[in-house]
Amino acid sequence: MAGRGASSTMMSSSLNDGPRISAGGRGRSNGGGRGRGGGRGRGRGRGGRSGGNGNGNGNGRGRSGGRGRGGSNNNNKRSFMPTSASDSSPGKRSHHDDGVDNDNDNDVVMPDAKQPPILSRQQKKPPQASLASSSSTTTQPTGTTSTTKEQQFQLAHMTNQRFADLHISTASRRALSEIFQYEYMTSVQAETLPLILQKDNQDCLAKAKTGTGKTLAFMIPTIEKIIHISNHRNRNNNSSATATIHCLVISPTRELAQQIATETSKLLTFHPPNIRKVVTCVGGTNKNTDIRAFQQGSNPIAVVVATPGRLLDHLQTTPGFAPRMANLSTLILDEADQLLDMGFRPDIERILSLLKQSSSSNINTSNGSHSVQRQTLLFSATIPPSVNEIASLALRPNYHFVDTVGEDAEQTHVHVQQQLMITSQEELIRNLFVILERETGTSTTTLCSNGGSGSGSNKSGKGSSSSSSSGGYKIIVFFTTARLTGFLAELFNSVSKETGYQVLEIHSRKSQSVRERASEQFRSSTNAILFSSDVSARGMDYPDVSFVLQVGLTEKAQYIHRLGRTARAGKEGKGGLLLAHYEVNHMTKKELVDMPLERIILPNSTKADEIASRAIGNVSKNKALRTSAEHAYRAWLGYYNGHLKKVQWDKKQLVLQANDFAKDVGLVEQPSLQKKTVGKMGLKGVLGLKIEG
Prior knowledge:
Helix content is 37%, strand content 19%. The chain contains 24 helices and 27 strands. The strands form seven sheets. It has an eight-stranded mixed sheet, sandwiched between helices. The chain starts with 24 loop residues before the first strand and ends in a 13-residue tail after the last helix.
């Protein structure tokens, strides 16, 4: 699975692997031939069903023997550097939709990520040597620059240290080899695993980029501890053993929780059934489903992966849940900075308080009963003061601190091409069509540099389609609220025959099953457009995202994290920021003043004008679309009511702009607001609102 918990090695390039021959045969490309049971080699490989020879740069290896001559052995292991889970942190938990509803887009379950294409075979050489040899001997096809960047990214996160050298269980080693097909550790794993595996059981705070193998870094030692405790626990105390929850992982988002659970289950594949139970508890699902999962089976729960809100709910209201944490041996806070950025600090502090009383696990041995202190692990891409404050609450004073990022490594976002586009509110929808027309390659228009600057340095030249180099496009467009995201997705899909593309949508107003399908469809598609609020800003690994467009106000950290969805693992990609005139001053002179934004003038497009006009006209004709537009109006009003200083409005100007927004999206009548909503937003007495009753 791409992303979290992955480990990898840079190998001799096998991007040009030769043909795979079903019953043996000969391969004449760089990758050689591959027989069903036969040889695999780097030059010409020949193999049959029971062995084979490889002549050239590598040795062939058959299913039942046979080795050839050459420089290095190929053992059919994958070398894949995870590209996931990114380093994006959505901003604060949103309280903007309709002015009162919590637009909580941060707890979303996504389906399991599919294994991306293998980048190269994992060799028996140190990865650095392999990369050096491949770069000097392999002739790359088109896309050379992208591949080189990808290799450089991979090399930056790899080591020569092998999982086989760790003192871990045979079952875990087997899963790493056979299920994950990893041999070498990433730098995060190499630096943290030896420390966490030590018998001193010390806590650990690790600063590590997302997508560099963090999940395995904390789950491998966690499983080893579960094995140790399970082997020594008093078997006569069956009720206690069955009730035990060994490990608790707190994740900021549903999709991250699902990824962690999936990786953990894979790592537990060859372990005994009594330590293989993994339960995911996240918002947006039926709470009773969690409770049934707790109660099913006779085995204890090895790992619970939960989002803060649902976890706190269970701790406070689910009978018998909190006592099951009494023997908790490991507590893990993943993406600690994001947990705090998203406003979960009160929940985290309350959870820590509830767990404080259960800080040790009792183990009965032949020498009597002794206590094993709970180990707490915090992993975070950044270490702001807020993370240090939580660390002081959650970790014991003598904790290990591991920094695998450094100070300079966090500035990679400045190398991604970033375009600033400015629009009037009236032409926002039209300009969205213009941008997507260009990025999908359905237009001959180009975006031209204005010579002016949004912020950062000025650049010149024409904008290029993100689909031009690869022949495909993968675009994510971020909006400020879930309601606006949903409305614009429906609006664009109402004219899909004219545009030639369908828009996928992911936000908190969609059911979990719908979000899962949309996520999977976007991940697996060659050409796809995803409209999202913040649920995809961090954590999910969508491969080959070519363009990220952010629409409206955002905070710097959120902007960077969203931008991190593209140009991942050394691949090509670019970002765009579309602002209304009233948002420009704050964003370019305060929030993103040091970002290398290139000011781009949006071109004229007769096609986009016609399609936008037709789409907006559909609002008055379609009841469902009209209702969606009304929800978007209320959410828009609530959102900007919380950002008046940033756009330099008073309440009166806010209402005037909101009413203009209603007209701009095709609403003939101004939507009404409930009296209590008006009161909560502090808009009582402001002229221009239509109040119900």
